Every structure is written in C-alpha cells, then in structure tokens.
Amino acid sequence: MIHRVTRNLASALLNVTKHGRVPLPAMMIAAPLPSDVTVSFEFFPPTTDAAVVNLWASIQRLAPLRPAYVSVTYGAGGTTRERTHATVVRIRRETEMEPAAHLTCIGASKTDIDAVAQSYWDAGIRHIVTLRGDAPEGAGTYTPHPDGYAFAADLVAGLKRVAPFEISVAAYPETHPEAKSPADDLDNLKRKVDAGAARAITQFFFNPEVFLRFLDRVRAAGITIPVIPGIMPVTNFRQTAKFAIACGASVPLWMYDLFEGLDEDPITRQLVAASVAAEQCRVLHASGVDAFHFYTMNKADLCYAICHVMGVRTADAAA
Ligand SMILES: Cc1cc2nc3c(=O)[nH]c(=O)nc-3n(C[C@H](O)[C@H](O)[C@H](O)COP(=O)(O)OP(=O)(O)OC[C@H]3O[C@@H](n4cnc5c(N)ncnc54)[C@H](O)[C@@H]3O)c2cc1C
Predict the structure, then answer these.
(1) Domain count across the chain
(2) pLDDT value at position 140?
(3) Percentage above 90 pLDDT, the chain
(4) Closest ligand 1 atom number to CA of residue 84
(5) Which residues contact 286 (CB under 8 A, 6 or more apart)?
(6) How far is the CA of 318 from the centre of ligand 1 (A)?
(7) pLDDT tens digit string along 131-179?
(8) Is residue 17 a part of any domain in this protein?
(9) What is the distance in A from the centroid of ligand 1 to the CA of 20?
(10) What is the pTM assigned to this prediction?
(11) Which atom of ligand 1 is nearest to the CA of 74?
(12) For residue 181, is it within any domain?
C-alpha cells in the first residue's frame, strides 16, 4: 500500500505518464539517501518573546544536522533590520553554525545599506543573501530608493565594495513575476553572478521537473555557480497556495488533490507534507542535486524528518 502511494506520488511529481519519462526505480522513501547531501535552513526574525523561544527551539533541533549555513530573512520593506541583525549575530555567538543575513535594497540609501553591511562584517558575518526585495504591501509597484541600490545585482556589487562577503542571490525556476521574459530574468541572474554572487537559491517550486529544466537553461546560459533548490515543506496548504500565486510559483493540481479535506487536520497534513517534500528532494537527488535550502517557517519538525529521509542525520543517528 505504502509502496503504491509513493509510486503514485513520484509519478505525480514527474508527470511520468504524460511526458513518457522512464519510471523511477521502485524503491522510494524506504531507503535513505547517502549523506552526500548538504542542507541549509532559512528562518525569519521573530516578533514576540514566544516567537523567539520557538525559533531557538527550532534552531537547536536542526543544528545537529550540521547545515552548511542558516539564513535569516529581512522583512518586506526592510522592516526587520534590527531583528534580523540581532538574530544573525546571536546565531554567530551562540552556535557553531555559519549564519547568513538576508539584505534587501528596499527603503534605504546606499550609505545606509553599506553601514548595515559593515556592521555585519564587524560582527563576523561573512555571508549575505542579497536581494532586491518587494515594495511593502499596498505600496504598488517597486520603485527604487532615489539614493539606493536599484536591483539585486547593484547591491551585490555594492556589498563587494564594502567587504569580500560570500554572496548568495535569488533565482526563479518559473521566472520572476516582474521579469519581461524568462531570457531577461536569466540575463539578470547572470548580472548578479558577474557582480560577484557565489550561489543562487531558488524560489520554491513543487514539480522537480520545473527546477531541472531551469537548471538546464542556467547552464546553457553559461552560469556555473551552484543553484540550490528552495524547498518549502507545506505546513498550511491554503496559505502556501495563495503565497505561491503572488510569487509566480505554480501549484500542481495533484497537490490540491493530496491536501483536499485536510484543512482541519494538521497532523495528517504534516504527514502528507513530509512525504511530498521528501519525495521532491529524492527525485532531485536522483537527478544529481546534492544541496537543498529549506524554507523552515521557523518550524523544525518537518525539515528534520525530510533531512532524516535524505540521510542527513545527527552524528548519533548516523552511527
Ligand atoms: C531565496 C530567496 C530569499 C528571499 N529573501 C527575502 C527577504 O529576506 N526579504 C525580502 O523582502 N524578500 C526576499 N525574497 C523575495 C525577493 O525580494 C523578491 O522575489 C523580489 O521581488 C526580487 O528580488 P531579487 O533579489 O530576485 O531581485 P532582482 O534580481 O533585482 O530582480 C527583480 C526583478 O527585476 C528585474 N530586473 C533586474 N535588473 C533589472 C534592470 N536593470 N532593469 C529592469 N529590470 C531588472 C528582474 O528580471 C526581476 O524581474 C527572497 C526570495 C528568494 C528566492
């Protein structure tokens, strides 16, 4: 029964029958993957005392999986500057993990942003996830700050002038919603690489084929940096589907089907979510992908389970 379910899930993920692809090997989730896999985790800065406690419980649970780095987002419109800074610096001070600070162009002059970057460098933060950001909700379309960095590529170049940061940037397997065309969006990614980006982390997606075809296009465009798939374990399907529409990520029909009837059943939703994301990672890994970036939403359990399935384990569990 489990076997049939996972086979069906894999077929759904790859659209095996529609595209006539070779079916996947029969052994699915039952066998953990070899631990050549590296992972990274993304958190957002907490707003309340209770959220701080929750975040640190999640960080502590995931830390033994030895992520390559953990990143902390910068609130839309640059609204979490202090909280992002405080969280990143605390990770640096209190854990062995490599923290990465997200930083956006929004609502600040170049001088201000350079000062934030310098303060990160002075606090021992060497990795910045460099983004344009979005206009705050209700503020209409994006307009650059008159004295600011207009786009992420400009910010990458600016940060490199401040200090030799390691820079990650965003990439969009389904094209950024404001891009004129997929080719234009790829040119933009190339500009970010030319400005000094060492790695791209993708917007989340659900169909592994979407990522794999994007990677083909990235490589065909001569972009050679690592492109890490952004994996979103779905804790709240309705909310994720809404969010996906806003950021141009498609939600396959089979996902609506899988989550149907589970709105009031968080436990089953969690189990389904873990199997969907684990299978997504397994299919990607079978196609040569060996690094994954998890959008944790500050919750550890799902990510921990998916990592376990992928063979990413604590030293004790791996022994
Ligand atoms: C991994 C990841 C992490 C993220 N973290 C955060 C976060 O912490 N905080 C946050 O607010 N948002 C975050 N975002 C969302 C991101 O800010 C938005 O997706 C934003 O709309 C685009 O950011 P970007 O860095 O990709 O922008 P850019 O790379 O600057 O691209 C934005 C758009 O402008 C176009 N463009 C680029 N250069 C030019 C140009 N010279 N002329 C005309 N058009 C141009 C591009 O094609 C694209 O359509 C994240 C996204 C991802 C994928």
Answers:
(1) 1
(2) 80
(3) 79
(4) 8
(5) 24, 25
(6) 38
(7) 999 887 777 889 999 999 999 999 999 999 999 999 999 999 999 999 9
(8) no
(9) 35
(10) 0.91
(11) 8
(12) yes
Whether 16 maps to a domain, the answer reads no
Residue ranges for the chain with pLDDT beneath 50? 1-8, 10, 14-30
φ/ψ of residue 77, rounded to 5 = 75, 10
List the structure tokens of 2. 């489990």
What is the extent of the structural domain holding 279?
33-318
Task: Write the pLDDT tens digit of every residue in 255-268.
Answer: 999 999 999 999 99
Q: Is residue 187 part of a domain?
A: yes
Check which CATH number belongs to the domain holding 251 and give it: 3.20.20.220
- CA of 107 from ligand 1 middle (Å) equals 14
**Cβ neighbours of residue 198 under 8 Å, at least 6 residues apart?**
166, 167, 168, 225, 226
Residue type at 219 in one-letter notation = R
Cα Rg of the chain, angstroms: 19
